[in-house]
Amino acid sequence: MENPTLSGRTALVTGSGRGIGRAIALRLARDGADIIVNYARNQKPAEQTADEIRDLGRRAIVIRANVGKVENINHLFEEIEAEFGKLDIFVSNAATGFNRPAMEQKEPGWEYTQNVNSRAFLYCAQKAVPLMKENGEGWMVAISSPGSIRVLPDYISVGASKASLEAITRYLAVELAADHIHVNAVSPGLVLTEALQHFSAMSDPDLPDRLIANTPCGRLVTPEDVADVVAFLCSPSSAMICGQVITVDGGYTLVAPR
Q1: What's the mean per-residue pLDDT of the chain?
Q2: Would you identify the family this protein belongs to, as annotated (predicted)?
């Protein structure tokens, strides 16, 4: 159900040109929010997302900024302040990772993964809070991963960054609650994206069927499923949810693999 109470609100969704970020940006736009579409490398899909938002009657701007770099975060928020003068919603979705075993991790890849996946949330939040205080309230949602608490193959750099992201979520939630800024996280399971479909087609065609067989709800999570939960956490109805990580995986992590 669309939430008209987001009308007039402004939302930043990092990494919103594709996949989950795109679905979140479109859902918030359908609920009435104007959107800052952010990307780091691929401009075309970001512009396409912005065009779809405008077709919904919402305002959209596209800002290139690699949030793994503090100077780019500064640029991102300077642009937001100049264009909108405020920010109501911040969704930290941009992510990266170098998938290899712990003993093969290299410093550059490790540092870059931590910077994009967790540090960016903290430093973006520092920039977002003054803009949210202008309105007397705000919402932040970080996109995490089950790898924050489960050991997944070759996932240590991402898993560690997501564990850090969830800790930052809890600390920000407590620190900002008095300012009526609501901070939570969403942890999707394996999501049916183009990337997953490409990977399975190239290396493991049976992967989607195996995942579905181990999901009690009988299907894979879609980007829209994740976006629905994010939209709820960005609405007044979620006011008493504070510092929580909401798992969206159709029950996959509850059962032993078959």
Answers
A1: 92
A2: Belongs to the short-chain dehydrogenases/reductases (SDR) family.
